Amino acid sequence: MSLLAEWEAGRHEADGRAYPVYRRGSGPGVIVIHESPGLTPEVIDFGDELVRAGFAVVLPHLFGSAHAPPRTWEAARVVPRLCVTREFTMFAAGRTAPLAAWLRSLARTVHATVGGPGVGVVGMCVTGGFALAMMVDPAVVAPVVAQPATPLPVGARRAADVNLSPEDLRAVADRVAQGCPVLGVRYRHDWVTGTRFDTLERVLGDGFIRVELAGAGHATLTDHRHPDAVEAVVAFLRARLLPAA
């Protein structure tokens, strides 16, 4: 039985793109953008955890498979495809991924559907920077950047890049200055995240909430799930989306 059996399947179309989406739960909206190699059981489990925490969770399916049993060989097939697709910016510095426009539209749709002060977004690994790109839209009020891995940290410039155009980075800084903080979680010695947290701390100041875990793991919320990371994300989402609580 698929782990998505109890999720409502749909499709979101915008900006000339269309991707499947899965929805479950009630309460304020939270969009969880999966990492490589796809919509894995661990990502779905994290989505279910947020549903139990009181959120209406949306899982867009952007690449790879959506399945119940783990397939550890998929990353070797998926990552090279991401490197050449136009939707992602795996190597380019100073650019926002084209997929951001579709994701911003999804955020507006989720907000219009469930209401509340806005929606939360959790980006992970190759989609980590998407949470920043999406907060350019005021519908996103709780952005979470989990172990951002793009552009791939080949050289100091890419390692420090946060996957945004200069214009979008200024827009993010403006939103933070207006009271919308950003939460970042990563393992302290995860080389794939480069020096991006230093960049965000420099640009966003106290508006960047930096959570670093001991060790050299990677997937803070899924494969290498750390309870402190999950607790920090849930607490941040509750504070931003359920302020009365």
UniProtKB/TrEMBL annotation:
* UniProt domain Dienelactone hydrolase: residue ranges: 26-148
Q: Name one Pfam family in it.
A: DLH
Q: Which domain of life is it from?
A: Bacteria
Instruction: Please tell me whether the keyword Hydrolase is annotated for this protein.
Output: yes
Q: Which InterPro entries match?
A: AB_hydrolase_fold, Dienelactn_hydro
Which GO terms fall under molecular function for this chain's record?
hydrolase activity
Q: Which UniProt keywords apply?
A: Hydrolase
Name by which UniProt lists this protein: Dienelactone hydrolase
Taxonomic source organism: Terrabacter aerolatus
Q: What is the lineage of its organism?
A: Bacteria, Bacillati, Actinomycetota, Actinomycetes, Micrococcales
